[in-house]
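Researcher: Last one for today. Full complex below.
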Amino acid sequence: MATATAGAPRAALPGPLRHRAAGKLLLLAVAAAVLVPFAAARWGSGGWPAALTVDISAPLGRASDWIIDNRDSHPLFLYFLGHVSNAVVVSVRAVYLLLLGAGWAGVTALGALVAWRVAGVRLALGTAAAFLACGLLGMWVPTMQTLALMVVAVAASVAVGALLGLAAGLSNRMDRVLRPVLDTMQVLPAFAYLLPVVLVFGIGVPAAVLATVVYAAPPMARLTALGLRGADPEVLEAVESLGTTARQRLLTARIPLARKELLLGLNQTIMMALSMAVIASVIGAGGLGDRVYQALASVDVGAALAAGIPIVLLAVVLDRVTGAAGERLGTAGGTPVTWLYVLAAAVAVAVAGRLLGRSDWPGSWVADIAGPVNRAVGWITAHLHSGVPYVGGTADWAAGFTTWVLDPVRDGLQGLPWWSVLLAVAALAWLVGTWRTALTATLALAATGVLGVWKPSLDTLSQVLAAVAVTLATGLAIGVAAARSDRCERLLRPVLDVLQTMPQFVYLIPVVALFGVGRAPAVAAAVVYALPAVVRITAQGLRQVDPAALESARSLGATGGQQLRQIQLPLARPALLLAVNQGVVLVLAVVIIGGLVGGGALGYDVVYGLAQGDLATGLVAGAAIVCLGLVLDRVTQPTGRRAGKGA
Amino acid sequence: MRLRTTAVAGALLLLTGCGAADMTQQASPFANARGAKTVTLSVQSWVGAQADAAVAEYLLEHELGYHVDTVQVDEVPAWDALSQGRVDAIMEDWGHPEQERRYVEEKKTIVRGGELGVTGHIGWFVPTYFAKRHPDVTDWKNLDRYAGLLRTAESGGKGQLLDGSPSYVTHDKALVKNLKLDYKVVFAGSEAAQITQIKQFAREKKPFLTYWYAPQWLFEKVPMTEVRLPPYREGCDADPAKVACGYPHTPLQKYLNADFARNGGEAARFLKNFRWTTEDQNEVALMIAEEKLPPREAAKKWVDSHPSVWKEWLP
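Model: Here's the assembly. Have a good evening.
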């Protein structure tokens, strides 16, 4: 599809303009020369013209009033949403009681045995250690609450995602319809739809599970579709020749062939659901996220860390175990009988635990890490904040960064005439992709103006650009180092794991203590979050460069630096572009969190909307973030690779 | 096609048990897991509210034998949750006229639970070390002269007025505009961020101007002096865009879910009786926020040393 559309604009160009980029720009310049004077004369040349905005706060306000007035009586709530909500509560409760009943010994044994069967001895030991660490941190019960929530949310996400993926994998039409829907589900900041979900379901577990499903189902859907589409045509033909029906083909050939993708989808869904665990605590989901959130309220980094570590451990264990299961697919796992043994062993341990009266985690086996952590954080922030000889303190850097980078970029963007910003985006997107890409990007940016949030959107955009620049500069440097040294990569791996899965609420306080309130700590939080993905993709991309090419360069006497600049970096270009794209998307995902530390702009509006029950402010700001996401995605992602996105 | 849709809808209805499902009758799946009577309290993000909830929780558990769940939510969603019965009580409300009208007067799903005994006040504050050096900074008319001292990178060329969490009651933006002050409101975005910033300023004895509120434990750590704004008169804050007066003194209120107030037995009576002073609350709040005691232990310490206060709350 991509190649077909890419051909179109070239054919329309006159003969001498062979060069595609120049042609595109010329065409755009001609269009601009015609349209811009007209638009500028009619609507002025400053910020977004007021005549072109639509105020949707009144209808959104009415919608929210309607829900509040009808949710106790309307049949939609009584006969449908009410049952959904009940079903969620009942299943979460069932899982939770089961976990509590098994006791800490039973749960640890079950986790370790399952990990042993699907992933080997090392991961089994790791799993057991992780569970015991959760108990040692005094977080056993919250961990079980989060686990119960996760089991139900992941099951629901996988079911929904697999159904959507099945539809998209079997029908091209559904695929086209679903793709933008899935894009939106992933880019729409979770904070923005927490409010509508809360209005309908009230605070608590059902709302949290549904918000998680919206967020975590898309990767499952995408990978299911990818797996079904990627099935080997020869195998399918062979199966068809046996005279099977369409359903038999699906069940016996296409789904089994897509096993790897399905398992990867499960892995991604688990990761995304876990990252929602903390955000969902804002609407009263309980569990570990709630502990992190409450610790934030009393400015207690140590307590937040004690609740954050189990989240990291759960994420790492689940990631490794499902990942290992994917690699060993078909070779291990064993028969149903071995699984019966596993189950029996776990039950035996649980029963033994109960008989010994040890099913609750013993209160005396708790290590208090909050005190030392708080002292360490206090020391670091007190000594690095300002007045460090020669280099200045972090607060000085932050002030400098705000004054010399963030302010000029923001003021520059906001000072430009509105049509010129649109034009610039159109040009960039067209150079990278097709005229369709350009149109989408331009319309998405225009939408922020129509929604009446042009200025805050450009403010947010300036923060994103600055954060992406910092992320790429550091990420590429670290990525190169990791690619060149195995030792460095081994050391980095756990650090990256922690950075990627540690809830952002945990490091907000240290970040503010170091950089002060404002846009600088928001950028810092975004960099911390986006860095691991950029490092990983860069390192992987560089390592996969054809060894033959490197070898020949080495034989010609190229130095390490020359090899890097002239061979590795150019050859790893696709991976580097992907790193840029992922950096942008992840930075944008943290924009809301930035609102919590003084980032202002759209992130603050979303947080404000949720805090004040103001559907209009929150949803409009959320929609604007989605639009920015579309713009940045289209501008940074060459069209050719779109098919693999989200995997 | 139509037939199939009906069939699917019918099947769904059968599956879900046909009956009406009342969403207001749901408890948390984690509640009550060990078979006790449960009360759910809403806790707001500031430490004063945590102190209220911690002491109520401790006494409900140890004196009356309830299991207590706490849920942390912002204020407006908390009202919503209270009306739906997801939480049974809000211990500390700073005034939400719109919600009171909707839920207390019209829908009657929430009832008043009486005063908490603590009077709240919002205002603009400067650190006392700064006010001592420049005594005239405590009148809003002189603030412009100090704008240069209070400038930060984030406030551009103007002075910085530090505001807090988006969930708090504030008209600072309108105030700065209507009093024609040379200041920019910078929203910290959360109370945690605001406190961290204030402490960081105080450590270096830097001047700052902040939106803040009393009672608050931070005054014990960073003494602050209030800046006089034009005095509050009834109704002067009626139009949010035209506000040009300071904030009122608000006796903080408790609110209970209506069903819980009727059928909640001893727990409901206890929560209605709960009434303590600013000093009591600050004592507990300081233990939680500064000594980093878990709220439960802070509550225990206070309960052990003030039996005469809480004995009167027991039904």
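The first helix of chain B runs from residue 2 to 15. Chain B has a mean pLDDT of 87.
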